[in-house]
Design goal:
Shape: globular
Structural class: alpha/beta
Distance between the termini: 27 Å
Largest sheet: 6 strands, mixed
CATH topology of the largest domain: serine acetyltransferase, domain 1
Strand content: 5-15%
Strand order of the largest sheet: 3-6-9-12-14-15
Helix content: 40-55%
Radius of gyration: 18 Å
Length: 270
């Protein structure tokens, strides 16, 4: 976990809350008092949930209700896949969104309303099922999540913690893609292949990277740690660490100070 995520956790603890989940529960109770129309929803999805896994499973199941499956069975499937390690990543994602998105004013807002966050958590569950050999159900969940939330993420893709999929719309992440911790990805980003190759064919996004809106990163190439891909760029060659690339095709336009973390600053300037 990065220093900024650790600081965010420290601030939460300083407010006498042990985790984002306790903050969410308190926010849900307060919101239910202010907005009676939302009270049944908040009680069923957050307030009455008996565990943190149950909260995220109920929220995701409610969003996926268009599927012709038993909701209670879907809750059981999702919550059963939410291990302690996955829940730690979910919480890191909540903190990342709360810190980096000025439109996100509470953890509860991120949990209930941000489809990029929802899509990412569905991927974490589908990925766990994929790794457990349950390929068919993992693929079904990934497809359903894409239909509901927008991002199209292959269940085999490997994604770290502290990730923000801002807006989420139009994001495509291929089968052999790797995204390390503390990465921010904006709308309409593609991490794709370059043709009909098989095998390891998708990008590797290292720690602390920010990928601007509409950027396309194609092929089994590495985007070095703490680098920035400018909006609208097309990247077909490896990108060194600590730099900004822009253009079609993308080239290096700036070298960063060693302590600059684009994923956290979210500075869109080149």
């Amino acid at each position: 976990m990065s220093s900024s995520l650790a600081n965010a956790m420290s601030e939460t603890q300083a407010a006498n809350d042990a985790s984002a989940w306790l903050v969410i529960r308190a926010e849900a109770v307060a919101l239910a008092e202010r907005e009676p129309v939302l009270r049944p929803l908040l009680r069923s999805q957050v307030i009455d949930a008996d565990s943190n896994a149950a909260i995220i499973a109920r929220v995701l199941t409610a969003r996926l209700s268009l599927a012709e499956v038993d909701p209670s069975g879907l809750v059981e499937l999702l919550s059963g896949a939410l291990t302690t390690d996955i829940l730690a990543s979910v919480e890191a994602d909540l903190m990342a969104v709360r810190q980096r998105d000025p439109a996100c004013t509470t953890y509860l807002h991120a949990l209930m309303n941000l489809k990029g966050f929802h899509a990412l958590q569905m991927h974490r569950i589908a990925h766990a099922l994929w790794n457990d050999g349950r390929i068919e159900i993992a693929s079904w969940l990934a497809n359903l999540a894409s239909l509901v939330f927008g991002p199209d993420i292959h269940p085999a893709a490997r994604i770290g913690a502290g990730i923000m999929l801002d807006h989420g719309s139009g994001i495509v992440i291929g089968e052999t893609a790797v995204i390390e911790d503390e990465v921010s990805i904006l709308q309409n980003v593609t991490l794709g292949g370059t043709g009909k190759q098989s095998g390891d064919r998708h990008p590797k996004i290292r720690r602390g990277v920010m990928i601007g809106a509409g950027a396309k990163i194609l092929g089994n190439i590495e985007i070095g740690a703490f680098s920035k891909v400018a909006a609208g760029s097309v990247v077909v060659k490896p990108v060194p660490a600590h730099c900004t690339v822009a253009g079609v095709p993308a080239t290096v336009v700036r070298i960063h100070p060693a302590d600059e973390i684009p994923a956290e600053t979210m500075d869109q300037n080149i």
